[in-house]
Specification:
By secondary structure, the protein is of the alpha+beta class. Helix content is 41%, strand content 12%. The protein has a two-stranded antiparallel sheet with strand order 1-4.
Length: 494
């Protein structure tokens, strides 16, 4: 929060000025130079009208020669003038909040200048990275601040992954924080066929900050902490032990570290310097609202991503950008399934879910047995084979049979009775005279229609004087009518 001082009355200021000695009024206007502070100076008098610190406790304001601070003889801790009051207002731009929280020590490492120049030459690349960060950055800044960490940490995904949740390194490190599988599991990031917590923005951010805090408790220095995040705590620990044995210093720049790590920290500090003064590097840093971009919604059961996006009134690609942890376009994990939605879409999602979230919307587990075929399962649950494959991992043999028992996701709603009966495998029997007569009595009459280009279910229903639902009941869910396909059409008894 900003602490802002406002003048209650210009008359009160004029009255205060009249009490000063003549030489005080003749002094030139005073400008306070103080880190993280914007000072507003009166154009017509040598007094500070308002001092606006970006963050922290409001410093005292003195008038006359004391306004220049301790160096000019001003005393800190004096009471505020009665004519000035304090009002709390939020910082409007998240980048200002980030700048106020940049707290790592300054460094004269020449590699910082090298990386500043490199970023300046490729400023469009950095601009694109910062654009990708916009949906995620507020959440990360909030979490970093809660832990009392320097806000340089919030910029770390710029170096790690260019804020790309789908980033995957040659070492199989994934997500914006680039966790390798083993470290991810240590910090509770589940990884299975449907979900990879390393790519989950909320879960991976928590894990990364937990890991960084653990490293910082050991090394007590943020440069060493970041080096250990890159190459491992053992790597940094061994380098420090070697230097101690040689009587050498153990700060970051003095250590013998892998080349990537040696450049890692200076690269982050170069980005920090660019964010702090973007105009010096020709970076057009657009204002970023200092407010939450997304909220988390917990689901009682698995849900197909397409359905979730529709319920939220979102484009599927935009929805998946916010939920990159889900690998197969289905919201499902071993823990309660959570999805991330823009703040403005949460109410829309909840309302549509309440109105349209019938049983068919949800998914459930199906424990498929070894030897079952995907085709059989698709028919049993009234879904296409492509749909089943897209949502489920499955190893199959040449004939499509499962090589092992497998947990699969299928629609929660039961298929129609007619479809269940149609899905039962019945051995083909050559009809006899006796079976033909009994079949006429038991089985509903039907005819076969060969689909032609331009056919629709409605047109076929009108042509054969039947209901669309009757055609679907005999043929399963028909998403596309493909020319040449055979459709069973019920015959209406005259």
């Amino acid at each position: 929060m900003l602490k802002i001082l406002t003048v209650v009355s210009l008359l009160a200021v004029s009255s205060a000025l009249s009490a000063f000695p003549a030489q005080a009024l003749e002094t030139p206007p005073v400008k306070i130079v103080q880190k993280d502070t914007v000072s507003v100076i009166s154009e017509t008098a040598s007094v500070v009208v308002a001092s606006i610190p970006v963050t922290g406790t409001l410093p005292p304001v003195a008038t006359g020669s004391a306004a220049a601070g301790p160096e000019a003889g001003g005393a800190r801790g004096e009471a505020l003038p009665e004519s000035i009051s304090q009002v709390d207002i939020p910082v409007a731009d998240l980048w200002e909040r980030v700048r106020a929280g940049l707290a790592m020590q300054e460094s004269d490492d020449p590699l910082i200048r090298t990386h500043e120049a490199t970023f300046a030459k490729r400023i469009e690349g950095l601009q694109n990275t910062l654009t990708r960060s916009r949906p995620y950055l507020f959440h990360i800044v909030e979490e970093v601040e809660k832990r009392g960490m320097p806000l340089e940490i919030a910029l770390l995904p710029i170096i790690e992954s260019s804020f790309n949740p789908q980033a995957l390194s040659s070492a199989q490190a994934a997500g914006i924080w680039q966790f390798i599988p083993s470290t991810g599991r240590i910090y509770g990031l589940d990884q299975n066929h449907w979900y990879d917590g390393r790519r989950d923005i909320v879960a991976a951010t928590k894990a990364a900050l937990d890991h960084l805090q653990y490293l910082n408790r050991r090394f007590r220095d943020w440069e060493l902490t970041l080096a250990a995040y890159n190459c491992g705590e053992g790597c940094v620990g061994r380098a420090m032990t070697k230097n101690r044995a040689l009587g050498l210093p153990t700060h970051f720049s003095a250590l013998s570290l892998p080349s990537e790590t040696r450049h890692y920290v200076p690269k982050l500090l170069a980005v920090r310097n660019i964010i702090r003064a973007p105009e010096q590097f020709n970076l057009a840093l657009e204002t970023l609202p200092n407010k939450a971009y997304f909220r988390t919604v917990t689901l009682p059961r698995p849900l197909e991503a397409r359905a979730a996006a529709t319920l939220a009134g979102m484009n599927l690609d935009d929805f998946l950008d916010l939920n990159p942890g889900y690998r197969r376009k289905v919201i499902y994990s071993d823990t309660p399934s959570k999805l991330i939605l823009p703040v403005g879409k949460v109410a829309v999602f909840n309302r549509n879910l309440a109105q349209n979230g019938h049983e068919a919307t949800w998914l459930r587990q199906y424990f498929a047995q070894k030897g079952e075929t995907l085709k059989q399962i698709a028919e049993r649950f009234d879904v296409s084979l492509n749909w089943l494959r897209e949502l489920n991992p499955a190893e199959t043999g040449k004939k499509g049979q499962l090589k092992a028992a497998t947990t699969m996701l299928v629609p929660a709603a039961k298929p129609p009775v007619a479809l269940q009966q149609a899905a039962v495998a019945v051995p083909e029997v050559r009809p006899t005279a006796s079976t033909r007569s009994s079949a006429k009595a038991k089985a509903p009459a039907r005819r076969i229609h060969t689909v032609r280009k331009g056919d629709t279910l409605l047109a076929l229903a009108e042509r054969y004087n039947v209901a669309v639902a009757d055609i679907k009941a005999l043929n399963g869910k028909l998403r596309v009518l493909r020319p040449g396909a055979k459709l069973r059409i019920p015959v209406v008894n005259s």
